[in-house]
Amino acid sequence: TEIDWETYMQQVKLYLDGERDYTLIKGSTGPLVYPAAHVYIYSLLYNFTAGGKNILLAQTIFSWLYLGTLTLVMACYRMTKAPPYLFPLLILSKRLHSIFLLRLFNDCFAAAFLFVAIYAFQHRIWTVGSVAFSFGVGTKMSLLLASPAVGTILLQALPLKRALNAVFLMAQVQITIAWPFIPINPYGYLLRAFEFSRQFLYQWTVNWKFVNEQIFLSREFALVLALWNVALLMLFITSRWLRPSRLSLTGFIRALARPPSPSIQQRISLQVDPSFVMTSMLSSMVHAIWWGTSNDLIGDSSSFEKSDKENYHAD
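The structure corresponding to this sequence follows.
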């Protein structure tokens, strides 16, 4: 079922034709609102599928991506010693089948990169995990939701210098993939690819349908949810994500200024096990998705795009 595929193809054609101003890359249903890795991925698909016309081939590619991602997810669950009865449940989601095989959304690639990062972190392959996570963010910025957990994982699993190197590596990946667009219009790129002021439309919400639309769209409601989200984030950090170090939040911050001895660091690092990695990163994603309404970071995969499409047509 075509929703965004045609628009994706129109947008990447402009890129392939030489357009480098992000604000001028548009399709029939709206402007480009994803980071640059999305453009590169769908440019490849454009070339493989005869300009997006060979839908069957595109669906075949996405079906293999689905199977590969599913295999990776199961491998991550195996690392956590999850009970076997959970594995059949992973293939029963009709929404996943729709997103991968019918909609051809970029969420598919973002999810794949997320689980590559989780799998790499579980195996303590920190460089690969950092690159995969950053490339996932460069595909769809909603993966930034996992960044608080990624930060606490790296800062506890690695000495401070190595953890900061991993952060710098992720930043370098973002700069590298954005570089073709930065010299032309850096602000335009950041505005389109990482706009945090995006409004989540009432018609697309699921969690907050019991609230009327006027309240849902009010700034006060968004502020309350944002504050509640921050409070929950602090609760997760202090009660869950800092368990390996056994420190309070203030103690953890002090430890960054005065890193522990190598023996203590090693003890903390060993507590960052596969189960901790996966639980932390996925819980970071889920709790923010549940509570958010105010931007695309915290909401349905196409919330802002649909909003922007309406404004685009109105113009």
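The mean pLDDT is 85.
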